[in-house]
Specification:
The chain is mainly alpha-helical and 126 residues long. The chain is built from 3 helices and no strands. The chain has a domain at 88-126. The two termini are 67 Å apart. Residues 9-24, 33-42, 79-97 have a biased composition (Polar residues).
Length: 126
Amino acid sequence: MGNCFGKPSTKSSPFQGSARTVGSANPPARPAQGSSTATNPQKAAPPIKPETGRTLGGGTRDVEDPKAAAARAAESRAQKPTPSNKLALQLKTQQNRTRTEILKEASEENQRQKEVDAGATVRRWD
């Protein structure tokens, strides 16, 4: 292990060579130096094109643009009817409150805290 100021090692790195992605075709095999394939070259196979992504368990389906699919999914989520469970309903009501309602609620909470502090002061005889 070295540091950023160290000299590179003289040994060959295991990461030297060309990089490739997971879906790409295998690199062409290098013929051995005494092999007969070097003197008798065969016709090269056409390159393999990586396929587009597919959903798991899905059959043959029309491939849709990812942006269009995301937009369609967002629209369907936005057009859903009212939430069905209690937590989602509470979140929806909380999101629909106005700024004045939120400030009024915070003010009432501060007022209650002041009343509790005043009661504690009286009990301590300060």
